[in-house]
Amino acid sequence: MKAAMDRWLAGAALLSASSLACSSETGTAGITEPLRVFDGQFIEGELPGRPPLTEEELANDVKPVSPNVTSVDGASGVLLRGDPLRVMRGRASTDAVAVGVRFAGRGSGYWVRPVGAPDAANEGQYTFTLDTELSRALPPGLHELVFAAIDREGSAGTQLGVGLCVASPIPDNLNACAPKQRPPSTVVSLSWDTNADLDLQVFTPDGVLVEPKHPTTAAPGDEEDPRGALDRDSNHGCSDDGVRRENLVFEDAPAAGAYFVYANLFDACGEPSVRFDLTLHGVVEGDEPDTFRQIETYRTSGVLLAAQANGGSKVGLLITKFTAN
Known about the structure:
Layout: H1 2-21, E1 35-37, E2 41-44, H2 55-59, E3 69-73, E4 77-79, E5 85-92, E6 98-103, E7 109-114, E8 118-119, E9 125-134, E10 141-150, E11 160-166, E12 186-192, E13 197-203, E14 209-210, E15 228-230, E16 245-250, E17 257-267, E18 273-285, E19 292-305, E20 317-324
Parallel strand pairs: 4-11
Antiparallel strand pairs: 1-9, 2-7, 3-5, 5-9, 6-7, 6-10, 8-9, 10-11, 12-16, 12-18, 13-14, 13-17, 15-16, 17-20, 18-19
């Protein structure tokens, strides 16, 4: 227990020294970074240590230089829009007193936290926990989080890189991270900027009104699989879900005919007005063989006033019409 406390104190002292060395920083240091670590120390500059091992080095069984982060959980996978909070846990070698992390090639510095207790089940390696927030401004696609273990002298060994997929707010079947994944044929997307309950409404060529109360293009009572469906009823009941977007997704080509697209203000939720963007998206072949790209084919914006809220009693404001062949 004393050894663990000594190591934590050494890590805390290292952070304190780093903080004094960066005395010109304010209490808001790191607030605009793509990654933020709660109760972490933000330090300007490059993450210390050697670059992560390459695939070739790993294949040749090259060993990382100590001190190093040996494992990380919670940093990989897919980050969904509106879900930026993530807890990252891992272990570092027994000569580490702190762990640093940043996005490769993004931001102006890195975050540091002292290591925690030793893990008896893993040869006494030191555990760590990072409560993080990832910026909603991160562009869709693959990003790399880079971790470094730091010793008492402030030196680091080989860094550890972990891939993270930031999902597009427009449903694309994760094409932004895996270009061989084919995006939906067509996506109609409505987004807005305030805590209002706005609904996407679309009349199909068959006269079906797609909206949260009837979220598919299938006729009422029709048992067949619909061609298109809404992905959510965003901000329903003024819940401020952090998404503020609804998408009508057609995995396959929409049925031929004219589609009329509306924005309906169900509830202003106490806001005087709401600004919205309406976009249409399609799919084209990518630059590499057997790859695809999602493209924006149409965009427009508008404003709805609180007085136009109707509780879903009628169709909203007509935005545009598009025709499927």
